[in-house]
């Protein structure tokens, strides 16, 4: 994930670096050092300010100011939506004007399989707690489309057998809920009837395997 972020620096127009009042500024020192030498605008967002006091926040802002002096530091609270509108305004102000990359009728450059996996991933993020959503990968193994129907097969990969049990749930109820909600969203998205099959498989420690990360489409140096 971090390697992907580093590669994105090469053609970024604006960088949003999101941290919070708990995370130590030294956590991603190597990445921050690469940001320091860039010449594009940087918005450094300090989230969760509702969990701290004014004095501690001021010290944290001062510390970040010394680390990334070119950054505009914006304290925010995603929970209470504090300063969120300001962040959106600043992004719009900082983005350069440029000719369109795509035609007016082209609303995305992503394939249909991408949206299928993201919709299923969204349901997993919504319906499971703690570390489970971050230990899964969603792979679309089959996408067959006809005039009125799309047949989709999906595999959810997890790292441990215990995670597989949690994803499936007692008597399969948890997985059935994900599949039902995903199917509804997919039918709304594609405007067609969706036949959706979801399976769960264990791929031990896939997040630490360069080979598996490449197979799942992540960029690995």
Provide structural commentary.
Helix 5 (112-127) packs across helix 7 (173-190). The chain is 40% helix and 20% strand. It is globular. It has eight helices and six strands. The mean pLDDT is 88. It is an alpha/beta fold and 221 residues long. It has helices at 2-8, 29-36, 54-67, 84-94, 112-127, 161-168, 173-190, 210-215; strands at 15-20, 42-47, 72-75, 137-145, 149-158, 193-202. Strands 1-2-3 form a three-stranded parallel beta sheet, sandwiched between helices.
Secondary-structure blueprint:
Layout: H1 2-8, E1 15-20, H2 29-36, E2 42-47, H3 54-67, E3 72-75, H4 84-94, H5 112-127, E4 137-145, E5 149-158, H6 161-168, H7 173-190, E6 193-202, H8 210-215
Parallel strand pairs: 1-2, 2-3, 5-6
Antiparallel strand pairs: 4-5
The pLDDT mean sits at 88
Give the total of beta strands. Answer: 6
Order of helices and strands: HEHEHEHHEEHHEH
Outline = globular
Major β-sheet strand ordering:
1-2-3
Protein traits:
single chain; about 220 residues; alpha/beta; 3-stranded parallel beta sheet; 3-stranded mixed beta sheet; 8 helices; globular
What would a concise description of this structure say?
This protein is of the alpha/beta class and 221 residues long.
